[in-house]
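Workshop exercise sheet. Pairs work together: one partner reads the sequence aloud, the other fills in the structure field after running the prediction. Swap roles for the next sheet.
Pair: D.N. / O.F.
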Amino acid sequence: MFARTFGATTLGVDGLIIDVEVDSAAGLPGFDIVGLADALVKEAKERVRTAIRNSGIRLRQEKVTINLAPADVRKDSSGLDLPIAVGLLAAYGLISASTLDRYLFAAELSLEGDCRGIRGILPMAVKAKEAGFKAMFVAAANAEEALLVDGLDVYALDNLQQLVGFLTGQERLLPAKTQLSVEEKTEFTDDFADVQGQFQAKRALEIAAAGGHNVLMIGVPGAGKTMLARRMSSILPPMGQEEKLEVTKIYSVAGLLKGGGLIHERPFRSPHHTTSMTAMIGGGSVPRPGEVTLAHNGVLFLDELPEFGKKSLEVLREPIEDRRITISRAHGSISFPSSFMLITAANPCPCGYFGSPDRACECSPYEIKRYNQKISGPLLDRIDIHIHVPQVKYEEISSKKRAESSAQIRQRVIAARERQLKRLQKYHLFCNAQMNHAMLQKLCVLEPQAQRLLEQAFRKMNLSARSYDRIVKVARTIADLAGAEHISAVHIAEAVQLRDAQCAGGE
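Structure field:
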């Protein structure tokens, strides 16, 4: 007898509906799964048969063939256990197959028949709604996550026996309801008020937050580079509903979603400098999100930048420029979103004290040159703001006067972002850093004096075309913070100062 049920897996950060076709026929007993199933899915035949038996259901010894369609997409989700089990029971005539096309099933089964949570439930639920399914059956551990999708009934299951009782009409099961409380206001433990001095660095980070720009901070050890970077989240504007859903889907696919609700805070990722290239951009036989994707709509902070492997740094070029990363494997290509702010910190030399007025540098010119050459020119060219972070003076660090708080800075950042949203709304962009060259021509009007100043800087600093664009973008953000309609010479001057190439490389 033939039966069909529907399950789901993930492809990138999106859900993919899987047709689970089950055929049970007389013949030599066997159990085969076809349709490009991963080892994890092939093992489902042992989990499913044992779970059914331990749920008190006896099956005849027949030849069973299960096809997972579309057959040209590799499946690697243990969530296919449940639709396989339901399809098998329907093929044996133990439950009615007539109503199964209205439901989507997604859960892993234990050997006892209990339903376990899986990753990627949110994109699966989004896809289920788009495909027109009336309801979705998930493990109780995944119910809150699936309930984030409006207009889809979600049934929370404890075990397979409970589902069989519902499908045979012997047990009543009501759609789950969310137990999450109303969203509370986000409170940040790290505040810019704790940072004494470093006024230029704080100004640069405010501009970066307002326009979504990348930043390189160079300074001696203990100057406060890491302390400043870790407070970036406290001045970034809150995410919109669309951004929250994007981030939550990514963390759901990665198995990092905690609590089941929407993620409200912008991600802050700080991978160690030993992070591999695959961990940075994502990968695997079925590609999974890497650090650049986990930082989507948030901040990717690379501390001790020259200590990272060259390959791990060079792969950042594409996601910085395109705000997406495409990973190609034998069975196809998958694209992941990677629109993030890159914040980096580095010492000027191996010992860290080149240029310090208080301590002599112990490095030779060759060692300094070799150290700084670890950061390639093309990567530096993609970083909008280069700043020097000096050692904090005793008078500043011992001062009892509290510095400007993150809340005050954030108000200015939000106001600047609102101006950008009005200007970029028709392009579906969120901040100035996302503009391309064609948009700069239309949206970034330079006053004549500003144009002349930029020309002088371009010739004197021998800038590239990309550097030109990034200076204009930063100047546009400075103008937005000042509430100015056009870019003046003052805005260009500050943007050029923040692009001072002498900060990079410790020269």
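Discussion prompt: Residues 108 and 116 are 5 Å apart (CA to CA). What would you look at next?
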